[in-house]
Every structure is written in structure tokens, then in C-alpha cells.
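Standup notes, structure subgroup. Blocker cleared on the pyridoxal-5'-phosphate input:
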Amino acid sequence: MNAIPPRNRPVYLDNQATTPCDPRVVTAMLPWFTEKFGNPHSAEHRMGTEAEAAVEEARAAIAALIGAEAREIVLTSGATESNNIAIKGAARFAAAHDNPRRRIVTVATEHKCVLESVADLAAEGFAPVVLPVNRDGLLDLAALEAAVDDTTLLVSVMAVNNEIGVIQDLAAIGGIARAAGALFHTDAAQAAGKIPLDVNAAGIDLMSISGHKLYGPKGVGALYVRRRPRARLSPLFSGGGQERGLRSGTLATPLIVGLGEACRIAAAEMAEEAARLTLLRARLIEGLGRAIPGLAANGSDGARIPGNLNLTFPGATADALMRALPDLCVSTGSACSSAAVEPSYVLTALGLTPEEASRTLRLGLGRFTSEADVDYAVAALSAAHGSIAHPGTATTAR
Ligand SMILES: *Cc1c(COP(=O)(O)O)cnc(C)c1O
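Run returned:
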């Protein structure tokens, strides 16, 4: 019995995993792959200086999106690299310059690349502190204040969580870090282009951005590095000394042009897009809630981006729902280890049991999500749930 007709194109509701490149971004990038292929570091000739000018224009657009200066932007391959440079770079600079601070404070719901970068530094004599979150996914600011002291080198707290979409209070966190004389790094991969960001208003010293989370290309990103007062980092790569010595390697002109265009579009259209996504998300949760009593939404109600819903379904596993719906692209947040499927560590950090986490799906709406996509998702998930769910395992409301 299958009430859901097959489709010739899947419905994509996984915009926290990656976003499609905006066609305007693709158009901006194309000439830099072909006729304008010069090396942006070849300052001796016109093709080099043209590429360099394009890179600098993109750098200015990236900076403008977050209230920074262009010369504070270091171009990288993505947020994973930016997070590694920020965290390991700050630690290694401190260790090499007799700064005695060794404590690095982060949060249990960070992306793996932040958690693993912090954990790796234990082997270099640093003291990682991983704080828990509240049931709503937000950091307890009193717990942060208690954990940050004059031995703290760095506080790293993400702006928006990639699974549950909650927005941390960056200004409050930045204030606590600065009062203790610690650096504040934020992984803004899910926030940049989605919510207004201002590095000065929030006291941010280091911020990571990813191209493919804001309708730009994959394989490019940026790291904001504050100049006044200066956030000092040691580079991870040895090489030609590009990006003021922080990131050696020939810059990827086409991808950087794409990231710049993505930032320009996001800055211009952010408010309008957020309003549209808020309505689409309401349509999605209202439709699903009507069809599936006992459906529970995870993460703060108020402090969240509009394009994310994280839902625990009564009586059906996320896996079974996804298997019944091959034309719907959503995500479970679980990770496959060598032994077994492990529940999402973000959901268990919120206090969900592994069993509740196994009944949870992330639905990510984006710029190219239509009302028809949302209506398909409501109909498809409702029908699949109706045929799979068995009573008696209703989720508890939260
Ligand atoms: C996607 C993501 C990353 C990794 O970004 P890449 O550019 O793919 O390396 C890091 N942090 C968060 C919160 C993300 O969503």
C-alpha cells in the first residue's frame, strides 16, 4: 500500500547538510574557470591582477556580510579548515609565545571538526572543557561564566547548530570571553547569510564560514581574524605565505568569486528570505502536527533559524520513515561508526534518549524550497507514518 506517487525529481529538505549553488553564483564563477584563469598571485601581468581584483572584491563582500574589514578575512577551503586554523592556530601561537593560558572551552553540540580540534589539543598540553547544553539546546550562560577564567585561552561556541537550528547568544558569550581576556571563536557555517551577524557587536575574534551552506560552491570558506585587538594565530600549512602567512596555497579564484557573490546575495535578500521560510516552516509543522498527534519539535522555539525543523515522531523510527520515502531527502543526524548506527550526539546532549533520537528527523528548508515541496513532505511523511507507526510508543511532549 503506497499512497505516495513516485516523483521524477526528489524533494530536497536537507539544506543544513548543503545548499544548491544559486544560479547567479554559478554565472559569476564561470569566466574564472575558463578565459580568466590567471593566478591571483601573479602580479606581473594583467591576467594575474584581474584575478587578484576579483578575489579582493569577493573578500570585501564576505567581510561586509559580518561587519568586518576585508583585510580581516582569510580565505580557506571551508568551515572545517577555518575551524582547525582558528582553534589549533590560536593554541599553537599561544604555546610558541609563552602565553600561559591552556584552557579551551567549547560545547557538546559543536560540529565534529570543532570537538575533534579541541580534543586533539589535549595531546599538546591544553585543557579542553566541553560544556553541556540545556534541554532547548542553548548554552547555560552561568555555566559558561563559571568555566571561563584567567587561564582560558579560547572560547569556541557555534552561532547556529546544524541539527536543531538553535541560535546561541553570541553577544553574551563574547562578553564573558572578553571579560576573562579569552579569545572568542564562533563556527558560523549555519548562521552566515541566514541571520544578521556583526563581529564587533558580538565581541567575536574568530569566525568560520562555509560557501556551500549559503548557496555558494563546495570547497571554499573563510575565517574572520580580528585585527584590533589582534587575534594571533600560527598557520597550519607551510608554503608560499599567501593570506598573510595564515593559509599558504594558490587561492581558488572561481570558488572565491562564488562565495563573494553568495554573500552579496545573502546580505541583500536575508530578511525577505527569512520571512518566506518562516511561513513555509509553519505550514510544514502545522500540516505534520495535524496528521501526527504526539509529534515533538526539538530545540528552542524562539532562538532558531527559520529553515530548520528537528522532529521526533511517535511510534516510527527515522530510518523506517526514510526507507519508505526515497523521494524525500531529509536527515537522521545519526552517525555510522564501524560497529553500529549511533544516535546523534547533539540530540542526546539535549537529553533525548537514544530511542527517542532514533525516531528523529531533521527537515531543512532553503531558498529553493517551494510550497509544493512542503505540501509533498507533509503528505508523504503523514502517509508513511500512518502505515508504519505502531501505537503505544507515543513520544512524550516537550
Ligand atoms: C557544514 C558545517 C561545517 C563544515 O563545513 P565545510 O565547509 O563542509 O567544511 C562546520 N560546522 C558546521 C556547523 C557546519 O554546518
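Discussed briefly. The mean pLDDT is 95.
Next: hand off to the docking folks.
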